């Protein structure tokens, strides 16, 4: 009991709302609020959208290592050979709103084809393409 203090007062109420400027202590240690960090990266080919790779391949984290001392995470992903804009942040609420299907965030992809687009290809695209996240139309 009494592990959490806000402005030198013990807090036992579940769901207590901390306000900007409040000093929060847990188990005798001052908790510092993390400032939100947003990094827009133009991801080049050859980098994986993950924080760590067990095969020691290049990750987007290698590209932003010197941009902040805060721990950030890629929001969504682009395949290794894909280039494009990628958001990295420590703002979990924003990341969830952008990636969880229930929020309906719209994604737009621009592609370059390596062949002429045939009618059968266009029909297949109109019917939807299966991605990890589900059917895309």
TrEMBL record:
Q: Which GO terms describe its molecular function?
A: pseudouridine synthase activity; RNA binding
Q: Does the record's keyword annotation contain Isomerase?
A: yes
**Family annotation (Pfam families):** PseudoU_synth_2 (PF00849)
Alphabetical UniProt keywords: Isomerase
Keyword Isomerase among record annotations: yes
Q: List, for all copies, the residue spans of the domain called Pseudouridine synthase RsuA/RluA-like.
A: 38-129
Q: Which Gene3D superfamilies match?
A: Pseudouridine synthase I, catalytic domain, N-terminal subdomain, RNA-binding S4 domain
- Source organism superkingdom: Eukaryota
| GO BP term (any one) | pseudouridine synthesis
UniProt record similarity statement: Belongs to the pseudouridine synthase RsuA family.
Q: What is this protein called?
A: Pseudouridine synthase RsuA/RluA-like domain-containing protein
Q: Which organism is it from?
A: Cyprideis torosa
């Amino acid at each position: 009991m009494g592990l959490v203090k806000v402005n030198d007062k013990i807090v036992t109420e579940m769901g207590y709302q901390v306000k900007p400027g409040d000093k929060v202590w847990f188990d005798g240690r001052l908790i510092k609020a993390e400032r939100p960090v947003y990094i827009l990266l133009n991801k080049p080919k050859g980098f994986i959208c993950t924080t760590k790779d067990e095969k020691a391949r290049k990750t987007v984290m290698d590209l932003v290592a010197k941009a902040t001392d805060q721990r950030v995470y890629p929001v969504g992903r682009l395949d290794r050979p894909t280039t494009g804009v990628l958001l990295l942040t420590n703002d979990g609420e924003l990341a969830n709103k952008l990636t969880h299907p229930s929020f309906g965030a719209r994604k737009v992809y621009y592609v370059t084809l390596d062949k002429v687009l045939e009618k059968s290809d266009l029909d297949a695209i109109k019917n939807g393409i299966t991605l990890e996240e589900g059917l895309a139309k």
